[in-house]
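We modelled the chain as a single entity of 1144 amino acids. Its sequence is:
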Amino acid sequence: MEQLHKPHRKSKEKKQQSSGERNPKAFAFARPGKLQRTAARSSDIKERRFHVPLVDRLPDEAPPRLVALVGPPGVGKTTLLKSLIRRYAKETIADPQGPITVITSKKQRLTFVECPNELEAMVDIAKVADIVLLLIDGNFGFEMETMEFLNILAATGMPGNVFGVLTHLDLFRKPQALKEAKKRLKKRLWTELYQGAHLFYLSGVMNGRYPDREIHNLSRFLSVMKNPRPLVWRNAHPYTIIDSFRDITHPTKIEADPKCDRSIVLSGYLRGTNFAAQDQRVHIPGLGDFTVANMEVQPDPCPTPAMEQALAKITGKTGRRRLDEKEKRLHAPMSDRSGLKIDGDAIWITKEKGFTFDKDAEDDGERGEGEEMIIGLQGERRLLGQTDEGLQLFQGGETIKDVPVEEENTGRKTQRKARVAEREGGDDDEDMDDEGFVSGSGEEDSEDEFDEGKLGSMFRKDADKDNDEEDIAFADSDSDLGSMSELDEEEEEDYDSDEEAAALRWKEDLTGKAFKMHGRKRSYHTGDLARFMYDTSLTPEEALKRWRGDEEEEKEENIEDEEDDDFFKKTSQETEDLVEDRYIPDYDYQDLATKWAAEEQMEALRRKFTAADMSRGRDDEDGESWNGASDGGEDSDGDGEFEDLEAAEEGEGPKTKAKAVEQPTADDIEAEREKNARRKEELRQRFEEEDRDGFLNDKANARREGGDVQEFGEDDWYDAQKAMIQTQLDINKEAYAELDERQRSAVEGFRAGQYAKLVLEKVPAEFVARFDARLPIIVGGLTPTEDRWGFVQVRIKRHRWHRKILKTNDPLIFSLGWRRFQSMPIYSISDSRTRNRMLKYTPEHMHCFGTIYAPLIAPNSGFVCFNSMAGGNAGFRIAATGTVLSVDESTEIVKKLKLTGTPYKIFKNTAFIKDMFNSSLEIAKFEGAAIKTVSGVRGQIKRALSKPDGHFRATFEDKILVSDIVFLRAWYPIKPRRFCNPVTNLIGWQPMRLTGEVRRDQGLTAPQQKNSQYRTIEREDRHFNALKVPRALAANLPFKSQIVQTKPQKKQTYMQKRAVVAGGSEEKKARALMQQLLTVRNDAAAKRRAKKEETRTAFKKKMADNAAKKEAREKRETKEFWRKNGRKRAAGDEGGSGGKRSRN
């Protein structure tokens, strides 16, 4: 059978190749509404990244980023800090305190600071932290301290990097509960910060640290973060956070007065802008304002690998890795690191097995030199060199057991002069130059041998002992002190690398090099003679003596004659000086002095010394000096060539062939000027070429003047502003790079990123006594304006979580700038933009103005306020937040004033008013003021009356009554109080308290003033006379207005007849008796009803019990009955035959 197949589908037609023409359907807008929304969203995203361009003041060698660990107590801050340090530095710190700096990458470092649970520390950390790790107890939720810190950050400046860290997640037993808690806390954190804020999760603690994988994720995130946008306040002020503290006050001052002001040294990395080189004003929060007495840059204690490589490249030394390199990865001077802890001015050394101060005790390992010294000092507890046998000062010297009587004329009477001792090997001494200065040392006295008889009797040896028996070994440098005792036994040790050997070769033959550089007798140099010639205070004879050294020798001889102690031996200097003297031609110095005494000869000689060879026209930009003088050749010693004029004239001596320096001509001077002009023009062209995109070209001038508005597009303008800022930074960097470090520090100041120490004087002694390493110490630089005080107008709003509204003139603690102070604000509000009206209390849900007396500060600076910074206060402690509006010494705040008075004489529209003013002078100030009565009649003050002082005449628009009260609405100016109490919590501080708080603390009651007490108001009933209308007028009134008077009725009405007429007193007594009897009867009936109710309740309860028992008995009997009868029936059914047969 033939198989049938289904027909195949038709193949799709292939698309034709496009001819290259644009297809209009492909590029049409299908949905214009969606396109508009997309374009708007793209534009919003693009505009959102635009900010006001700020100058990036971050230096090339940036300071470490400050990472703050913030959270309530018991949330795991210390555990997280230990884990991060272990992750970065491979080291465990038992008790981390103070700032801890670690290296995270090749060019980046982090400084970790644990914020204690104190409001002052939170405020300080919020001002300087670059990265905030907000620790949250996942099992408990957000706590009050966390919310307070977030609001402080929002008020003072929110850094770009704030992350949440959830801890204690191991306490959740169910995964679903853990998932819901994470979701709830993340949503709440996003509400407080921003949508998408990072939240890290840390589970249980293992071996005192969090799991390595979770810490690795967190540390990796911290290491790769970019620099956030700098905050305005930090970008305009220098500051540093202190990581080391020392008290350098002289011990004698402390011993004389323990409460004396101290001198302290604070060290830390500089941040923000540059510190001034001199007289930098700083503020330490919690301590006060100071002027930096001295500031020095120290070597970086924690350099990055990039910094070490750059330093090695400059010095030409390659870095060498050692086993102890891990110690350089961590800088924690205030923490207990490997048994070493710096606490203020004390250094604590901890050892696991403890210290033994017995020299002869056996130790497992060899003691180092420093340990030997400490143990020796601690173990002996004696004076230096004192032993049981006596006192021995020098090695191999005699032991002195008693102090003999000193002989007369012994000992040193004058200050000792420095002299050079020859080496042991007896090396030949050489002549040395002292860089153009005459040493002035004597020759004969320096040759005196050491005479032991001239010493005191304490140091005198026996006569039979040889003086050269044992020499004293001196160290070549401080670094060689440790190996002095082993110089005779050991040779120079081998170095591990060629770099160390090359670095230490400078120590070889130091004495020989010193003789070459600093000799006692110097050779005759031209530079010295030129220097003496230009010294106008010296005569030619004195100049020659100075040049030859004769005068200095005489002075030295006189000094040395008085000294009896000479520890040094002869040298061969005198012989060499005499040999050198033979090469100097011998002249008649008297004739020379006479010849050169003339002023013309001296001027001619000066011109010859200062003349330069200007005839050479080399256009060498690199080698030519700026002052127009020639370089002088390679063999010149920098002092110019000396021409022996006398030898040239007389033909005496070997220097008659010296070449004379020619006098420059006018043509030479003109050529030199042209060459300098060409050089300046070339420099100007080069600068313009480099600055074609900067501030000196025409385009920049047009931009500055606003001439070419359409030069940049919509996006190019922003980039151009950033380019201008970067160009200026590059220009500044090039200008500063040409200066050496000392000049740059003097001009620019101390740059951020450097590690420096600051010396502060006149610091209170309480700061040293109460120093706590856990509290952060911040040194913030002050601008000149911030040292002045005045009235500051702010915009303030009570925090929505604060319980009470704020009252005017109640003290508030402000955290404004670096400072924390207590002031008394006055609240006000703009009244129709005409005046600032004082408010007694802050509004509920809106901003108001506030005026305080405070240090002047830049506008738009945020601040935060507290009623009290004590930790025991329950509830939310932040009272208000706001910003600074303006700084002005004058304040215009007015208060509504209402004065009242009463009229005592009324003449139509005029009245005399009393009880409003006290004198005519007060009335004169308010003449013409508008007044008003309670009933609404308006008036005006006219003049004061002569006789009753304080009374005045006023006119009204209508006649007023005697009973009317007249009042005057006025505005009274209010001045804020000049009160500012700095918060000095580091040395002890007592805030100003309210009167109620003082009375509560002292147990006093508020005094009751008589005028403030409430009393009953007695108002007299006013009787008005009846209106009497005359009969003639009443007759002419219209019908509607006629007065209707009803005549009295003669007969009694029905109601009058039915009125009950009360009887006499007997009837009243009878009615009262009946009422009493009925009351007694009703009371007895009520008691009987209550008694019956109680009996009935007891009976009902008894009947209910009986019914329950009966029911239980019947149930039991029924069950027993059916148990018995059921068996009988079952047996009967089985034995009977009447049943149906069952089916099989």
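As a brief sanity check on the tokenised model: The first strand starts at residue 65 and ends at 70. The chain has a mean pLDDT of 75.
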